[in-house]
Amino acid sequence: MNITSEELLKEARALEPQLQQWRRTLHRHPEVGFDLPHTKELVKKALTEMGYEPKDCGKAGIIALAGGKKPGKTILLRADMDALPIPEDSGEEFSSEVPGKMHGCGHDMHTAMLLGAAKLLKAHEDELEGTVKLEFQPAEEIFQGSPDMIAGGLLEDPHVNAAVMFHVLAGMPLPVGTVLVPGGGITMASCEQYHIVVKGKGGHGSTPENCIDPITAAAHIHIALQEINSRELKPGDVGVLTTGRFEAGAASNVIPDVAQMWGTIRTTDPENKTGELIRTRMTEIAQGVAAAFRCTAEVSFADYCPCMVVDKPLAENAMDYMTELLGKGAMDMTALTGGKPGGGSEDFAFVSHEVPTVSMFIAAGGPEQGCCYGQHHPKVRFDDSILYEGSAAFGWFALRWLYDNAGIAF
Question: Which residues does the UniProt record annotate as the domain Peptidase M20 dimerisation (predicted)?
Answer without folding.
Answer: 194-273
